[in-house]
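Late entry, evening session. Most of the bench is empty. Finally got around to the prediction I had been postponing all week. Sequence below, unchanged from the version circulated by S.P.
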Amino acid sequence: MADPKTRLDWFLSRRIHVVTGKGGVGKSTLCAALGLIAARHGRRAVILETDTKERMSQLFEIPPVGYREVEVYPSLYAKNVDPDHSMEEYVLRFVRFQAVYDAIFKKSFLRHWVQSMPGFREFVVLGKIWDMGQAMDGRSPDYDLMIIDSPATGHGVSLWQLPESTRKAVGGTGPIAHYAAKMRDYFADPGNTAYHVATIPEELPYAETCELVAALRDKMHLPPGFLLVNQIPPAPFHPEARPLFEKLSGKTSEREHLDRQVGRPGITQALVRAGISQSARHAQAASYLDKLAALGLTTVRLPFVYAKSYAKTAVEGISLSLETELGRPL
């Protein structure tokens, strides 16, 4: 493959895309938007929700998404990788008989013992993702591109540390350690995987983003992707209109003229106050954008989208804005 010339080329050249960040910054929506971009560019792609609250059904206006993949857009699929189904699938590869699995893992004390093992459920989820993302047993990978809706910051960091933690916990030798090491190397391969950090330009998300980026780089040594800065508030007016806005803010002839035109002075005052408030939000966001840029990641900026609900139309609009940003030179 030729060297990527744009951010989009680079994005399409990786198979695994993990989107993580503080809860409430729009991770699931960004995963859906990235999936739409991949599908529009001819990739067979899947969005994997890692046992989080299922969101793809709302975003694509379809019935709830479960463990079985469903097509949400031509060449784009969604799946909720829950640990119980993943565990059953893996065990049945070796046990072969559903009745035996049910007897051992559903009706005996082993079920509670296994589920109480620290990190076991998460390890099974990672194993399923690893299985889906590579060629195994002579077959081709299930998908060209996989987008993983990772848990929020703290849990997300623990999840992607798990292969190495498991390898160390079992003494570094044996079949489990070997399996964990292969997963660790696969998810840490910069030619295969990218970890994108989603955030918004506000104080608490900024602080968590700094901690997360430091953990990815210095502690976990995972390949960074984009810094997806979401929900950037727009300026309330064009810079050339500021002199007029400042006149409207005081008791000037322009303000009096607008009052007469509207017929209700209270509306003019409300508009001015809204403009002042939005100006402050925009200025605050701009200051955090400067701070986020200092983290050194490729920053992708996305505007705040005003919508009654984030559903299919809104997601498609966000994906188009995101694709425009990704079209910039790398």
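Two things to note before I forget:
The mean pLDDT is 84.
The CA atoms of residues 234 and 246 lie 18 Å apart.
Will write this up properly tomorrow.
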